[in-house]
């Protein structure tokens, strides 16, 4: 929805113009999956799909929230009653950010907020992080909190981990806050150092398709947390702070030391090889060998399917069908257990590929997927 529409709806709901309108995008992760809570590397880019928020300050300790995308009216909350994991609804994301800001000592005295989003929910495209980041950016601006983008991302992650109760890493919030149009973000999640890597597929006659399988997923469910706990167990058994500290060249020796801890062996192998895949993709993009990243993306999928075990039949079908129909590479993206896959393809193959995936889904009796082209877009910003 455009800034003007969001602004007008705010005025209808709250009886006055908002002080401003902000937007924050969803993301696609090109490579580097589940590495973020292992202090590793990730490489997301922002989608044109975004959460837009019209916001005004209040001084009476009240937070009023409304979403264009959810049935129901304005929800009114008192700031001094906000408490972690007290809310199972969509309001937990914006309220969690207000809670995290106040908990960090920032003086936020209330807000009226109207939200509208074009980021598909439950599709592995960071709809939650986009809501968190747009609220943090808006309140940071209005209350003049002087927060840098990486600080916004950390606060949003805290809102998600503690207030919402989902044990996610820092990738999605940083992507939404820091990505730039025409670039992928090479992020070191240990110190949040980042490099913008030019990623202009159209200029090279390439396309990156997102295939939303329509299989919904949630990170507050147990499987994500189990993978995270397994990785932490691996790091503890190997005597390192995080799996990021196992160099790729020492992987075999590290796995041998894990003995018969089969599940941990698989998790460790995925994380260490995935960090190396991110570094390979960065090198290939830097040297202009964009087509050569395809097989690296596909290796990433195999590792997520067989070692990390977070794929599902729909995601595997996208990858297999795409590869059988000329894709350069394909993989699931995001947290897994559903959500979306990405497909790197020649522009000239897009129609054939899309049709092949749609037909394969129909033949398998799966819900029709939603396929769209992902163009690396701008990060969070003020619109009005
Ligand atoms: C989800 C999480 F929110 C991220 O932090 C990340 O772990 C991702 O899954 C997997 O790479 O999007």
Automatic annotation (TrEMBL):
Keyword hit for Kinase: yes
Residues where Mg(2+) binds: 128, 160
Top EC category: transferase
Binding site for substrate: 33-36, 224
Transition state stabilizer, annotated site positions: 27
SUPFAM superfamilies noted in UniProt: GHMP Kinase, C-terminal domain, Ribosomal protein S5 domain 2-like
Subcellular localization(s) per the UniProt record: Cytoplasm
InterPro entries per the UniProt record, alphabetical: Galactokinase (IPR000705), Galactokinase_bac (IPR022963), Galactokinase_CS (IPR019741), GalKase_N (IPR019539), GHMP_kinase_C_dom (IPR013750), GHMP_kinase_C_sf (IPR036554), GHMP_kinase_N_dom (IPR006204), GHMP_knse_ATP-bd_CS (IPR006203)
Segments forming domain GHMP kinase N-terminal: 93-178
UniProt domain GHMP kinase C-terminal: residue ranges: 282-362
Galactokinase N-terminal domain sequence ranges: 8-57
Any one GO MF annotation of this record: magnesium ion binding
PROSITE patterns for the chain: GALACTOKINASE (PS00106), GHMP_KINASES_ATP (PS00627)
Chemical reaction(s) catalysed: alpha-D-galactose + ATP = alpha-D-galactose 1-phosphate + ADP + H(+)
The protein's Enzyme Commission number: 2.7.1.6
Top-level lineage group: Bacteria
Key words of the record: ATP-binding, Carbohydrate metabolism, Cytoplasm, Galactose metabolism, Kinase, Magnesium, Metal-binding, Nucleotide-binding, Transferase
Residues making up the signal peptide according to the UniProt record: none
GO BP terms in the entry: galactose metabolic process
Family to which the UniProt record says this protein belongs: Belongs to the GHMP kinase family. GalK subfamily.
Function (record text): Catalyzes the transfer of the gamma-phosphate of ATP to D-galactose to form alpha-D-galactose-1-phosphate (Gal-1-P).
HAMAP family referenced in this protein's UniProt entry, alphabetically: Galactokinase
Protein name: Galactokinase
The organism of origin for this protein: Streptomyces cellostaticus
Chain's gene name: galK
